[in-house]
Amino acid sequence: MPWFWPVDAALRLTERNLDFLTEAVKITRPPPPDWATPNTVRLDLATMRLREFGRAKAGGVPVLVDAPYAGHGATIADYDKGQSLVETLLANGLDHVLVTDWKPATQEMRYFSIDTYLAELNAAIDDLGGVVHLVGLCQGGWLSAMLASRFPHKVKSLVLAGAPIDADAGDGPIKQMAKTMPLKSYRAMVRTGRGLMPGRFMLAGWKNMHPSEHYVDKFVRLYQNIADKNYLDRTETFAAWYENPLDLPGVYYLQAIEQIFKENRFAKGEFVGLGRRLSLKDVTCPVYLLAGAEDDITTREQVFAAEDLVGTPKKKIEQKLVPGGHIGLFMGRKTLGETWPGIARWIGRQS
């Protein structure tokens, strides 16, 4: 999911009108979403709750799904019955699955940095025995790749799904926005959020990427299907997830915008994580790359560029392009039904 303000007018925003923006994008939120699959909280850390699904087997290597931390909740990995990545993995031979349930930022978290999240992801892996199969979704993908670069011996295999590994690759709208919108505009929004990047700002930005879909088409479809209970239930489920954006720590957010998306330091081997310069060449485990053909959030080029950046031998790298857009990679029935079972079996073979 993008973190950028994808309308030309936003490029001309100044600090003096951000207060108005704060009021303009306030919405009445539905209740937050539930997890579709029974789980327990294995760890409760400052940044996340580590949710545990299934049951560990002696000698088994757990699968850790690193959910996106980009403004929406981690239930994207366990969205609904029949639309759950967790459910799919468990049904295809993986007995022990965990998900990083990243917490919405509070004022006490405003100085959390990328290092904070790397450190706690590392702590979660240590609690699981020190070795995992790591599945990074979207922004969770570059964090997972950083972890695999910093601690390569802790990652048995790495799946990167819709993950922007090379922010300079391709020519998508998010790349253009990252390069065009001045950093001072992002800093101004964080100042307005008193040290946080407000989720409501990002939500309005996402909607303005496809305004007709969110402001016209949605209401037309609702009117046309007003008597269809299944449609209404699906709409309510999606709204619970989509209309409940998370605030992000300002330091983390600005660091990602500047160093990852504007300067592309990670892909260039210039990003410093937990005291060391990170190189993707240090990632030598088997890697699976998944991209959406119509994904305008993370283009296929940004995902597949990892093939030439990691140190994994080419014969141990798999890549697949599937129909559909960004969110469909993680919750779409077609991709979950046709592609992720194969990825689960691929993970199983790496054990």
TrEMBL record:
Species in which this protein is naturally found: Bosea thiooxidans
Name of the protein this chain belongs to: Esterase
Chain ranges of the PHB de-polymerase C-terminal domain: 162-348
Signal peptide (UniProt feature, chain positions): none
Classification via Gene3D superfamilies: alpha/beta hydrolase
